[in-house]
């Protein structure tokens, strides 16, 4: 009986290793096929390997009586019911650190692209508008602009370090001030947004941060303010965001994540002050390979020693 179960579509090289080294079956995507599958495989499963896109909910945990660990590919684990896992004493691992640089690089790329309107200018050239229309409208300066980071964890700090090198004064808001941080702490997300030109969302997803960036925060950022989100779509009130962007009450947004991925609000598709990415922030060959290795290291350590290399904090 298989000890390891794959939940969701994973990077092909990872799925291959799970199949060849661990004989891991894949949970059927079709709910109708799951009952029979789980009756056959469920009782033996000790470890689920999944990614941030799928996770393990309370219902699935209930069908896996021997489940002891959920090994995740990705730093975010908001799709797994953490409370249900804690109740059962099920351990969870993620892949922190190895993706920090690439996610921070993407945040900076989105900030530059959005504020300088590079993607919009590229479209302008491609459609042959340059000879006919002349110069594109002037954009906004990135260097020296006031930057607010929402969530000063590993990724938030890596974004801050990068933008400090651009001469940007950095402030941040987290649940509590980060000891030893050289950056200015804002007591709330609204206060932070009101004091910056660019707000970068880098906080963890999940129930604790849902709509942390609500209409009030976006209004505080204002018609000259820019938003970059490399965290989770759930952190931002997407309806309010679309409303303010369409009506010109927010200057622009660079988004790698959305509330209902892979669906992007239709109203954003025609806007030139918005840069839209398909959740690719960690998507480099090097980083995804490192994530794969760390995922397998967690799995192996659990199966051999009953502990994880990178357990998520309690
Ligand atoms: C991955 C991510 O694309 O690490 C995360 O939390 O969102 C991304 O790095 C994703 O987890 C893979 O499905």
Automatic annotation (TrEMBL):
Assigned keywords, A-Z: NAD, NADP, Oxidoreductase
Domain D-isomer specific 2-hydroxyacid dehydrogenase NAD-binding: 109-281
Record-linked CDD domains: HPPR (cd12156)
Name of the protein described by the UniProt record: Lactate dehydrogenase
Domain D-isomer specific 2-hydroxyacid dehydrogenase catalytic: 32-312
Protein family per UniProt: Belongs to the D-isomer specific 2-hydroxyacid dehydrogenase family.
GO CC annotations on file: cytosol
GO MF term list: glyoxylate reductase (NADPH) activity; hydroxypyruvate reductase [NAD(P)H] activity; NAD binding
